[in-house]
Amino acid sequence: MMQKIQFLFFLGCTLFFTQTHWAQFNNGYGNNGRMSQMNQMGSGPTQSAPKPPSNEETASRVMENLKTEMNLDALQEIAIKNILIQSLNAQGVIIKKEGSNESKSEDIKVISENTDRKILELLNPDQKDLYKKIIAGGFKKKKKK
Predict the structure, then answer these.
(1) Where does the record place the region Disordered (predicted)?
(2) Rounded-to-integer distance, Cα 66 and Cα 77, Å
(3) For residue 74, what is the enclosing H or E element?
(4) What is residue 82's three-state secondary structure?
């Protein structure tokens, strides 16, 4: 009888300590838990999406293309760049506002037409033809070699 009690006591203690060990192991104290804790600690703050270029940077890139292709003088360059920045700012406001995509698209189309009209007023006849060709072909990014 004494051996049965000792065996049951031993079996009970073994089950109790085994269960405690597994509970700790699965709660982050075992290898799997340590790995996940280390991964969480090492990852640091989550990285956000890359920040889009500012309107000034975008206008500068467009002006680099226009300046070389159309032989703009300094005054034309400054005036056109300012027009492009105003246009990009207005388009950004439209994109952020509430409303349907169709109305936003129409508003952006109107801004683009006004921008083209203002730019054409600053150009001589030869430059106007070049600008119309560039607009018809779309602004394409030049590949860096």
Answers:
(1) 34-59
(2) 9
(3) helix 74-96
(4) helix
Q: Which amino acid belongs to residue 58?
A: T
76 is written with which tokens? 């034309």
Return the structure tokens found at 66. 């226009």
- Tell me which residue has tokens 């000034």: 56
- Count how many residues are written for the chain: 145
At residue 78, the 3 state secondary structure works out as helix
d(CA 124, CA 47): 48
- How far apart CA 32 and CA 15 sit, in angstroms, is 22
Place of tokens 């683009």: 112
User: What b/e sequence results for 77-110 when a residue is b if at least 16 CB atoms lie within 10 Å of its CB, and e otherwise?
Assistant: bebbbebbbbbbebbeebeeeeeeeeebeebeee
pLDDT, tens only, 32-84: 555 555 555 555 555 667 888 888 888 888 888 888 888 899 999 999 999 99
CA distance 67 to 77: 7
